Amino acid sequence: MITVLLLIFSVIAGVLLGKYFGKKEKLAKNLLILSAGFLITICLNEVFPQVYTSEISHNLGIFVIAGVLLQMILEALTKGFEHGHFHHHNEHNILPVALMVGLFIHAFIEGIPLASEEHTFSPYLLGIVFHNIPISFILGAFLFNRQEGHKTPSYPSLLIIALFALASPMGMLLGNYFDPNLQPYFLAIVGGIFLHISSVIIFESNKNHNIDWIKIGLVILGVSLALIMHLFHYHPTGTHLH
To answer: What pTM was estimated for this model as a whole?
Structure first.
Protein backbone atom coordinates (compact mmCIF):
# COMPACT_ATOMS: atom_id res chain seq x y z
CA MET A 1 0.00 0.00 0.00
CA ILE A 2 2.82 2.41 0.89
CA THR A 3 4.49 1.62 -2.42
CA VAL A 4 1.34 2.53 -4.37
CA LEU A 5 0.92 5.76 -2.41
CA LEU A 6 4.53 6.76 -3.03
CA LEU A 7 4.19 6.14 -6.76
CA ILE A 8 0.97 8.15 -7.02
CA PHE A 9 2.19 10.94 -4.75
CA SER A 10 5.40 11.38 -6.77
CA VAL A 11 3.36 12.02 -9.92
CA ILE A 12 0.91 14.37 -8.21
CA ALA A 13 3.74 16.31 -6.55
CA GLY A 14 5.60 16.64 -9.83
CA VAL A 15 2.48 17.78 -11.71
CA LEU A 16 1.74 20.44 -9.09
CA LEU A 17 5.30 21.68 -9.28
CA GLY A 18 4.95 21.84 -13.04
CA LYS A 19 1.68 23.75 -12.77
CA TYR A 20 3.08 26.49 -10.54
CA PHE A 21 6.73 26.54 -11.63
CA GLY A 22 6.42 25.15 -15.16
CA LYS A 23 7.89 28.23 -16.84
CA LYS A 24 11.16 27.76 -14.95
CA GLU A 25 12.75 25.33 -17.41
CA LYS A 26 16.08 25.50 -15.56
CA LEU A 27 14.44 24.00 -12.48
CA ALA A 28 12.99 21.14 -14.53
CA LYS A 29 16.38 20.50 -16.14
CA ASN A 30 18.15 20.44 -12.77
CA LEU A 31 15.60 18.01 -11.33
CA LEU A 32 16.12 15.75 -14.33
CA ILE A 33 19.91 15.81 -13.99
CA LEU A 34 19.70 15.05 -10.27
CA SER A 35 17.32 12.15 -10.90
CA ALA A 36 19.53 10.87 -13.73
CA GLY A 37 22.53 10.59 -11.43
CA PHE A 38 20.37 8.73 -8.93
CA LEU A 39 18.80 6.51 -11.58
CA ILE A 40 22.00 5.40 -13.31
CA THR A 41 23.51 4.50 -9.93
CA ILE A 42 20.45 2.45 -9.00
CA CYS A 43 20.67 0.78 -12.40
CA LEU A 44 24.32 -0.22 -12.01
CA ASN A 45 24.33 -1.05 -8.29
CA GLU A 46 20.88 -2.53 -7.81
CA VAL A 47 19.21 -3.62 -11.04
CA PHE A 48 22.06 -5.09 -13.07
CA PRO A 49 23.55 -7.09 -10.14
CA GLN A 50 20.11 -8.64 -9.62
CA VAL A 51 19.92 -9.46 -13.31
CA TYR A 52 23.37 -10.96 -13.78
CA THR A 53 23.50 -12.94 -10.54
CA SER A 54 20.19 -14.67 -11.21
CA GLU A 55 20.11 -18.37 -12.02
CA ILE A 56 19.00 -17.63 -15.59
CA SER A 57 21.49 -14.87 -16.39
CA HIS A 58 22.34 -16.42 -19.77
CA ASN A 59 21.45 -14.09 -22.67
CA LEU A 60 19.78 -11.53 -20.39
CA GLY A 61 21.91 -8.87 -22.05
CA ILE A 62 19.59 -9.20 -25.03
CA PHE A 63 16.71 -8.05 -22.83
CA VAL A 64 18.74 -5.09 -21.59
CA ILE A 65 19.26 -4.07 -25.20
CA ALA A 66 15.54 -4.67 -25.81
CA GLY A 67 14.80 -2.22 -23.00
CA VAL A 68 17.01 0.41 -24.63
CA LEU A 69 15.33 -0.09 -28.00
CA LEU A 70 11.86 -0.08 -26.43
CA GLN A 71 12.57 3.25 -24.77
CA MET A 72 13.76 4.68 -28.08
CA ILE A 73 10.48 3.60 -29.67
CA LEU A 74 8.44 5.09 -26.82
CA GLU A 75 10.25 8.38 -27.26
CA ALA A 76 8.83 8.58 -30.75
CA LEU A 77 5.47 8.90 -28.98
CA THR A 78 6.49 11.05 -26.00
CA LYS A 79 8.98 13.23 -27.92
CA GLY A 80 11.55 12.76 -25.17
CA PHE A 81 9.50 13.81 -22.15
CA GLU A 82 11.44 11.27 -20.08
CA HIS A 83 14.68 13.20 -20.45
CA GLY A 84 13.44 16.74 -20.81
CA HIS A 85 13.20 17.21 -24.58
CA PHE A 86 10.26 19.53 -24.25
CA HIS A 87 9.95 23.13 -25.32
CA HIS A 88 6.86 25.28 -25.31
CA HIS A 89 7.26 26.25 -28.95
CA ASN A 90 6.83 22.68 -30.21
CA GLU A 91 4.17 21.47 -27.78
CA HIS A 92 1.57 21.24 -30.54
CA ASN A 93 3.68 18.56 -32.22
CA ILE A 94 2.90 16.23 -29.33
CA LEU A 95 -0.45 14.48 -29.54
CA PRO A 96 -1.99 13.95 -26.07
CA VAL A 97 -3.04 10.41 -27.01
CA ALA A 98 0.47 9.48 -28.14
CA LEU A 99 1.93 11.08 -25.03
CA MET A 100 -0.51 9.20 -22.81
CA VAL A 101 0.25 5.85 -24.47
CA GLY A 102 4.02 6.35 -24.37
CA LEU A 103 4.16 7.44 -20.74
CA PHE A 104 1.75 4.72 -19.64
CA ILE A 105 3.78 1.90 -21.23
CA HIS A 106 6.99 3.37 -19.82
CA ALA A 107 5.66 3.55 -16.25
CA PHE A 108 3.71 0.28 -16.48
CA ILE A 109 6.81 -1.76 -17.36
CA GLU A 110 8.80 -0.10 -14.56
CA GLY A 111 6.11 -1.17 -12.10
CA ILE A 112 6.17 -4.91 -12.92
CA PRO A 113 9.37 -5.73 -10.94
CA LEU A 114 7.94 -3.97 -7.87
CA ALA A 115 5.73 -7.02 -7.31
CA SER A 116 8.79 -9.01 -6.20
CA GLU A 117 10.18 -6.46 -3.76
CA GLU A 118 10.24 -7.58 -0.17
CA HIS A 119 11.14 -4.29 1.53
CA THR A 120 9.50 -0.88 1.59
CA PHE A 121 11.54 2.14 0.43
CA SER A 122 13.87 -0.01 -1.63
CA PRO A 123 16.41 1.80 -3.85
CA TYR A 124 14.60 0.51 -6.95
CA LEU A 125 11.29 1.99 -5.82
CA LEU A 126 12.87 5.29 -4.86
CA GLY A 127 14.66 5.37 -8.21
CA ILE A 128 11.25 5.32 -9.91
CA VAL A 129 9.90 7.93 -7.47
CA PHE A 130 12.89 10.23 -8.04
CA HIS A 131 12.43 9.88 -11.79
CA ASN A 132 8.66 10.39 -11.68
CA ILE A 133 8.93 13.84 -10.13
CA PRO A 134 10.82 15.62 -12.95
CA ILE A 135 8.82 13.78 -15.65
CA SER A 136 5.60 14.83 -13.93
CA PHE A 137 6.95 18.36 -13.55
CA ILE A 138 7.39 18.60 -17.33
CA LEU A 139 4.06 16.86 -17.89
CA GLY A 140 2.25 19.32 -15.62
CA ALA A 141 3.95 22.29 -17.26
CA PHE A 142 2.99 20.97 -20.69
CA LEU A 143 -0.64 20.18 -19.88
CA PHE A 144 -1.41 23.35 -17.94
CA ASN A 145 0.48 25.54 -20.40
CA ARG A 146 -1.80 24.25 -23.18
CA GLN A 147 -4.87 25.56 -21.41
CA GLU A 148 -3.79 28.94 -20.06
CA GLY A 149 -6.82 31.01 -19.19
CA HIS A 150 -8.87 28.04 -18.02
CA LYS A 151 -9.59 27.87 -14.30
CA THR A 152 -9.95 24.12 -14.20
CA PRO A 153 -7.87 21.44 -15.93
CA SER A 154 -9.41 19.80 -18.96
CA TYR A 155 -10.69 16.22 -18.92
CA PRO A 156 -7.94 14.92 -21.26
CA SER A 157 -5.27 16.49 -19.04
CA LEU A 158 -6.69 14.86 -15.91
CA LEU A 159 -6.94 11.54 -17.75
CA ILE A 160 -3.29 11.66 -18.82
CA ILE A 161 -2.17 12.52 -15.28
CA ALA A 162 -4.35 9.80 -13.73
CA LEU A 163 -3.16 7.11 -16.15
CA PHE A 164 0.47 8.03 -15.60
CA ALA A 165 0.02 8.02 -11.82
CA LEU A 166 -1.70 4.60 -11.89
CA ALA A 167 0.51 2.97 -14.54
CA SER A 168 3.27 1.71 -12.23
CA PRO A 169 0.81 0.46 -9.55
CA MET A 170 -1.07 -1.39 -12.30
CA GLY A 171 2.19 -2.90 -13.54
CA MET A 172 3.00 -4.00 -9.99
CA LEU A 173 -0.45 -5.57 -9.68
CA LEU A 174 0.01 -7.51 -12.90
CA GLY A 175 3.49 -8.56 -11.79
CA ASN A 176 1.93 -10.56 -8.96
CA TYR A 177 0.50 -12.97 -11.54
CA PHE A 178 3.76 -13.61 -13.38
CA ASP A 179 6.04 -16.55 -12.73
CA PRO A 180 8.76 -15.30 -10.31
CA ASN A 181 11.34 -16.91 -12.61
CA LEU A 182 10.53 -14.22 -15.18
CA GLN A 183 11.66 -11.47 -12.80
CA PRO A 184 15.23 -11.21 -14.21
CA TYR A 185 13.83 -10.65 -17.70
CA PHE A 186 11.62 -7.77 -16.60
CA LEU A 187 14.48 -6.30 -14.56
CA ALA A 188 16.76 -6.52 -17.59
CA ILE A 189 14.24 -4.63 -19.73
CA VAL A 190 13.76 -1.96 -17.07
CA GLY A 191 17.54 -1.76 -16.64
CA GLY A 192 17.85 -0.97 -20.33
CA ILE A 193 15.17 1.73 -20.01
CA PHE A 194 16.90 3.26 -16.97
CA LEU A 195 20.29 3.13 -18.64
CA HIS A 196 19.08 4.85 -21.81
CA ILE A 197 17.16 7.64 -20.08
CA SER A 198 19.82 8.46 -17.50
CA SER A 199 22.73 8.32 -19.94
CA VAL A 200 20.96 10.60 -22.42
CA ILE A 201 20.38 13.19 -19.69
CA ILE A 202 23.88 12.95 -18.23
CA PHE A 203 25.89 12.78 -21.43
CA GLU A 204 23.85 15.18 -23.52
CA SER A 205 26.22 17.84 -24.87
CA ASN A 206 26.08 21.31 -23.41
CA LYS A 207 25.87 24.36 -25.63
CA ASN A 208 29.28 24.93 -27.25
CA HIS A 209 30.50 21.87 -25.30
CA ASN A 210 31.42 24.03 -22.31
CA ILE A 211 31.89 22.43 -18.90
CA ASP A 212 28.70 22.79 -16.88
CA TRP A 213 29.82 22.60 -13.26
CA ILE A 214 26.26 22.82 -11.96
CA LYS A 215 25.33 19.78 -14.04
CA ILE A 216 28.37 17.86 -12.81
CA GLY A 217 27.53 18.79 -9.22
CA LEU A 218 23.92 17.65 -9.58
CA VAL A 219 24.99 14.33 -11.09
CA ILE A 220 27.45 13.79 -8.23
CA LEU A 221 24.73 14.64 -5.73
CA GLY A 222 22.31 12.19 -7.33
CA VAL A 223 24.96 9.47 -7.44
CA SER A 224 25.90 10.13 -3.81
CA LEU A 225 22.31 9.87 -2.61
CA ALA A 226 21.87 6.55 -4.41
CA LEU A 227 25.18 5.20 -3.09
CA ILE A 228 24.28 6.14 0.48
CA MET A 229 20.97 4.35 0.07
CA HIS A 230 22.77 1.33 -1.44
CA LEU A 231 25.30 1.12 1.40
CA PHE A 232 22.74 1.34 4.18
CA HIS A 233 20.07 -0.84 2.62
CA TYR A 234 19.79 -4.50 3.55
CA HIS A 235 20.81 -6.76 0.67
CA PRO A 236 19.46 -10.30 1.08
CA THR A 237 20.58 -13.19 -1.02
CA GLY A 238 18.36 -14.57 -3.75
CA THR A 239 16.89 -13.34 -6.96
CA HIS A 240 14.27 -10.97 -5.54
CA LEU A 241 14.67 -7.23 -5.56
CA HIS A 242 15.45 -5.86 -2.13
So the answer is: 0.85
